[in-house]
Amino acid sequence: MENVKRKSSSYSFLTFSKFIVLSIIGIFMFFIPVTIAGYNSVPLDHITTYILDHFPMPAKIYALIIIVIGTIQPFVNKSWNKTKTSLVFSIFKILGSIFSFLVFFNVGPQAILNPDFGPFLFNVLAVQVGLLIPIGSIFLTFLIGYGFIDAVGILMRPVMRPVWKTPGLAAVDAVASFVGSSVVGLLITNSLYKERKFTTKEACIVATGFSTVAATFMIVVAKTLDIMDIWNTFFWTTFFVTFAVSAITVRLRPLSKKPDTYYLNQEGIQEAKLEGNIVVNAVHEGLRVADSAKPVHENMFTCTKDAIHLVMGFLPNFMSMGLIALLLAEYTPIFDIFGYLFYPITFALQLPEPMLAAKATSLGLAEMYLPALVAAGAPLITKFVVGVGCISGILMFTTTIPGLVSTEIPLSIGEMVVIWFERAVLSLIIVTPIAYLIL
Predict the structure, then answer these.
(1) I need a labelling partner for 75 at 20 to 30 A (CA). Which of 156, 240, 265, 272 fits?
(2) Partners of 40 in beta bridges
(3) Residue 164 in contact with residue 250, Cβ under 8 Å?
(4) DSSP assignment letter at 19
(5) With helix as H, strand as E and coil as C, how does 308-324 read?
(6) How many CA atoms lie within 13 A of 311 on its CB side?
(7) Quick one: DSSP state of residue 22?
(8) In whole angstroms, what is the distance from residue 147 CA to residue 149 CA?
(9) pLDDT in tens, 131-180
(10) Percentage of the residues of the chain whose pLDDT score is greater than 70
(11) Cα–Cα distances in angstroms (integers) from residue 153 to residues 66, 174, 269, 279, 303, in the given order
(12) Cα separations (Å) of 46 from 37, 52, 331?
């Protein structure tokens, strides 16, 4: 106790207030589910849902404007052809704008206007994500700017570093993704990377290993598979498998070969060595960060500006990559062929209907919800394995891949596909014995 007093006595009441009150606000907005009008979710999701329910057309217009600005931006700042990658994504953004206009005005080929394709991507996902990121960034300031994430980082360091090779504060990304969304997790990861609290390798590990879908969307998967009667079993198995897979992929290429350098090769903010009580150290670090933090309005402005920039880069690619992936899955045999890569594994694991399980697994790269649709009529073991696998795969062309492309985190699409394949295989291998054991 004397140690606590010695370390904390030099801080003002204002510093204590910023650390405690702002952290509580951030925790509440991101992590505490509340029930409003019969709907249980975190407050951040309630705010977004309210806007979508009461102002649907302004929300769609806003999303369309963001997509158009995001498409034009590379041509205005003349970055569209600086590299081959820039050129490719500039083309994808143009396609994303075209697709968005077709859906918004309800004109064009029926394949694009199919409710499960273009309208689903734009009206349901793009509009929601387009609102969620900027609104979330306002409250994200309270988590990352005033000591909370730094205190949690110290508390979680004994676990995170040896198992996942990341700083302790990476645990906040994982929780934010599970209770908020994968895009919120990516927003946090990108912010911490740019603040030089993550190295390039750490940012890549966190973005591809922790930014899974929200628990609320996991419920949608469970309902589709008709396994809500074993919801708790499904949720905790998914939680375990997701992070068990991440502990393995960090030791495989390409993640294992990512450089341990900081953003723009600047000097990083490394974790200090700990001495004494870990809780005391966590509190002291939180107070230290809160004491030296910029005013709230300045941090909120910076965080929101980064979020808007992320949205402008994300939404056009999201609409093009996501729609193309869904169309390929529906109208070409590419994912059937891709499924043969998994068939030897599903067959060896003795899953019921192994070919169906293999195809469903391959569809997870396009959109994590597709495997659940395909496996909805399968035997219970197969449904359970596919349901867990489509969530633990994390990377998909409808959300996380275009989201990652829009961040500063240096991962190519090829690398992301390789990581997804590793995760898909490992998920099958880990979850199948568990399913046979508990079901």
Answers:
(1) 265
(2) 35
(3) yes
(4) I
(5) HHHHHHHHHHHHHHHHH
(6) 28
(7) I
(8) 6
(9) 888 888 888 888 878 888 888 878 888 888 899 999 887 887 776 666 55
(10) 95
(11) 34, 12, 13, 11, 20
(12) 10, 10, 36
- Rounded CA gap, 130 and 141, in Å? 18
Phi, psi of 175 (to 5 degrees): -65, -40
Do the strands 34-36 and 39-41 form a parallel or antiparallel pair, or are they unpaired? antiparallel
36 sits in which H/E element: strand 34-36
**Residue 319 pLDDT > 80:** yes
Residue type, position 268, single letter: G
Question: In one letter, which amino acid is 409?
Answer: I
- Joined together, the tokens standing for residue 166 give 């990341």
CB 310 within 8 A of CB 407: yes
pLDDT score recorded for residue 216: 60
Identity (one letter) of the amino acid at 85?
T
pLDDT value at position 415?
96
**Other C-beta atoms within 10 Å of 110: how many?**
8
How many CA atoms lie less than 13 Å away from 297 in the CB half-sphere?
Answer: 0
Tokens representing 133?
Answer: 């990121």
What's the token pair of residue 337? Answer: 């062929």
Token code pair at residue 216: 């609320």
What residues does 41 pair with on adjacent strands? 34
> Nearest-CA neighbor of 97 among 125, 117, 118, 76?
118
Residue 237 corresponds to which tokens in the numbers above?
A: 């198995």
Angle between helix 148-164 and helix 170-179 axes, rounded to 10 deg:
100
Amino acid at 388: V
Dig out the tokens for 428 from the structure.
Answer: 């099958």
Tokens 């806003």 belong to residue: 62
The runs of H, that is alpha helices, within 55-146 are: 56-76, 84-104, 110-113, 118-119, 127-144
Q: How many Å is the maximal CA-CA distance in the chain?
A: 72
Distance, in Å, from the CA atom of 315 to the CA atom of 66, rounded to the nearest integer, reads 8
Beta pairing partners, 316:
none
Q: What DSSP line would sit under 402-429, residue for residue?
A: HHHHTSS----HHHHHHHHHHHHHHHHH
Number of H helices and E strands in the chain, helices first, is 24, 2
Do the beta carbons of residue 385 and residue 356 sit within 8 Å? Answer: no
